[in-house]
Amino acid sequence: MSALRTDSTPYARELVVAEEAARVAGAFIRTHMGRIGDAAIRDKGIHDLVTFVDEEAERIIVRHLNGAFPEDEILGEETATGDTQPEVKGRRWIVDPLDGTTNFIHGVPPYAVSIALQNGAELVVGVVYDVPHDELFAAEAGCGLTLNGNPAAVSETADLGDALLATGFPFRDYGFLEGYVETLAGFMRSVRGVRRHGAAAVDLAWVACGRFDGFFEAGLAPWDLAAGVVLTKAAGGRVSGLPSGSNPVFDGGIVASNGLLHSSLEAGARSLGCAYESMKIIRHTSSVDRCDQSTQ
Question: What residue ranges define each of the domains in the chain, with the CATH number in brackets?
């Protein structure tokens, strides 16, 4: 882990603005905890919910970011359309205004605000604000992690049998379910425990601060992962794609760890990675076939 950031680090102002935006959005979310009725909930897709709280929290964040950095692009969960390219020519903020919406609706923690800054191909700033626990995780790439302003780092667990892992179940797409179950079963036999919180941004933040020793999941979106990836790396951890060689943020499959366990976690998650990649190849081929047929 590198030395903690100072006011002279390259993205110090960006990090402060992101922290402020996360806290203001979090305060708004907190005012609606336990007050969401069924009439305020809409379905975006299979098991993919949204409320006016998600949408207003995103508007709050966007206003803060636009006010400070009007030239930057913003990719927000509630306003995103179509495929997301992994690189940009300039700078792009990647925002999930409320990661863990289902948890929020049911009054079950955790749920969080997630904000990351991308410059070209690099993720350089990450902030995750765990709203119900009032915990702000913040990092600038290469400058260490802070938790509510105090230094934090990944765990020192070196034995897989002593590890506590986090994961997320397939919930929108079940095309890789069998591979996930095989991976989960293997880890259940080989680690101390596996937890499923339902908020990937918080899972990664908890890897970064040493509560979890590793995390694996597939089928995620960039706004679920971007900030947490910055936190984990800045705290001394490792992140890789699932399957190995893919982009962990933009391809949707990820393994994150304290670094010491990374090879073991990658090996243990291989079945999930293969199943996830096979599903994407099959669906891409089907899509290409449909496109070819439509032009004939």
Answer: 12-152 (3.30.540.10), 160-282 (3.40.190.80)
